[in-house]
């Protein structure tokens, strides 16, 4: 994977297409040329954006970080499943990147699925987007659907902002040191903290408003 990413990143023209880079982000291709020598940091700090910002990982206390290190696995397009505390360098690669001679959707499922299986212990929540979920199957995991509930009770699945709700949920799980082994226990834990997680028509749903208005 690293070899293929380095090859496609060596020229602007190939990197622009394969990594979907625009004029302002084209320099990010250079990260892939120095993966084996560039500085590293814990994955939970490396990633940014609406999913990770609610964690405020660098300011989290020791107990919260320890909980995340034990429980969180991030699906990386470059490195496969990585733990929250695993040290990784900066890189540029997404689940839908197109590398010459190597399809991520074909390369990752077997080794990633095997790695996830070795970490499996009890309840597994799958909060990944569909694209990243395809890179590493996790049989038996529970996918949590994020919804917004209108005043008349109608439910609407959220798109971009579902990431904020998921980030806030993971932040709260870590800060409270949650110890749950079933979805029923998770729902009870959530209710005790003012969060709504419930089963609707056979699927588990997280109500975004229960984690704050900015999540909607």
UniProtKB/TrEMBL annotation:
InterPro entries, per database record: YaaA (IPR005583)
Top-rank lineage group of the source organism: Bacteria
Protein name, UniProt field: Peroxide stress protein YaaA
Gene that encodes it: yaaA
